[in-house]
Design a protein that fits this description.
- Its main location: cytoplasm.
- The chain folds into two domains: 172 residues, Rossmann fold (3-Layer(aba) Sandwich); 89 residues, Pantoate--beta-alanine Ligase, Chain: A,domain 2.
- The protein is globular and about 55 Å long.
- α6 crosses α7 and α9 packs antiparallel against α10.
- The chain contains ten helices and nine strands.
- α7 links the parallel β5 and β6.
- By secondary structure, it is α/β, with parallel strands linked by helices.
- The strands form two sheets. It has a six-stranded parallel sheet, sandwiched between helices. Strands 7-8-9 form a three-stranded antiparallel sheet, covered by helices on one side.
- The termini are far apart.
- Helix content is 38%, strand content 20%.
- Bound molecules: pantoate (PAF).
């Protein structure tokens, strides 16, 4: 695996692949890689000839009181893991390479960027959209792979790519979970032992809500309230637990069939998010 930290060097390495008409897949990450990221790279390998991974802790998607400075930076470990799973090229730029000057251009996916996680993390999704758009312009891949765990991010990037006619296909990859159901996340490492023991309750509540919908319950507000209460009783501070239309993340109504249940809740200072896609039986 080759590693570069400059856009110019990245483009030089990509040129012969493109000339040879090789299919290029791209997996953007912020590093501190876990098995979920590695599944993305493995999926990329199955669908393309060459796999490019970026590691960039993007300052513009962190709020002023968030963990940008303390976000785990584990490049040597990450690089070893990426080589092992067969990534071809690692792009590891510094902040000055991606943002040589403050960007006057912003990308805001109206509606999608300010709801759910966007409501409690103002500006977060504008930062995500900006950096993903910049990285796509740098790598110009045929295929972009993103985890389904960040369902709102995936939905928003799909919409940005469609709205801006960016020439890339997008593939969402299923969430990787620990044996007890907790979705893998770089932030799980912040949990204390008792918090880690409580954390799988988030997925259990999502499943309970999904089961209720499958059984034909249509009182979505009632399901949301019951599962939010259960989370609160388990020690979480709930940000949202909401049943939405999968296509645009708007609140679901009883006639909607393709649904996603989105949840975000804090255990101590650690904010966990998860989701469950479910199809209503009508
Ligand atoms: O999901 C992430 O790790 C980040 O939001 C992404 C897509 C790499 C953009 O910085």
């Amino acid at each position: 695996m080759q590693t570069v930290d400059r856009i110019e060097a990245l483009r030089m390495l990509l040129k012969p692949w493109r000339r040879a008409d090789l299919k290029i897949a791209f997996v953007p990450t912020m590093g501190n890689l876990h098995a979920g990221h590695l599944r993305l790279v493995e999926a990329a390998r199955r669908h393309a000839d060459k796999v490019v991974v970026s590691i960039f802790v993007n300052p513009t998607q962190f709020g002023p009181t968030e963990d940008f400075a303390s976000y785990p930076r584990t490049e040597a470990d990450d690089s070893a893991k990426l080589s092992e799973v067969g990534a071809d090229l690692l792009f590891l730029p510094g902040v000055a390479e991606i943002y040589p000057r403050a960007s006057l251009t912003t990308i805001s996916v109206a509606g999608l960027s300010t709801i759910h996680c966007g409501a409690s993390r103002p500006g977060h999704f504008d930062g995500v959209a900006l950096v993903v758009c910049k990285l796509l312009n740098m790598v110009q891949p045929d295929l972009l792979l993103l985890g389904e765990k960040d369902f709102q991010q995936l939905t928003l990037i799909r919409r940005m790519v469609a709205d801006l006619n960016l020439p890339v296909a997008i593939q969402g990859v299923a969430t990787e979970r620990d044996d007890d159901g907790l979705a893998l996340s770089s932030r799980n490492g912040y949990l204390t032992a008792p918090q880690r023991a409580s954390a799988p309750e988030l997925y259990r509540c999502l499943r309970a809500a999904g089961d209720a919908i499958q059984r034909g319950e249509r009182d979505f507000a009632g399901i949301e309230a019951a599962q939010s209460l259960r989370l609160t009783q388990a020690g979480f501070v709930v940000d949202y637990f909401t049943i939405c239309r999968a296509a645009d993340l708007a609140p679901a109504t009883s006639g909607d069939m393709d649904l996603v249940i989105l949840a975000a809740a804090k255990l101590g200072n650690t904010r966990l998010i998860d989701n469950l896609v479910c199809r209503s039986n009508g």
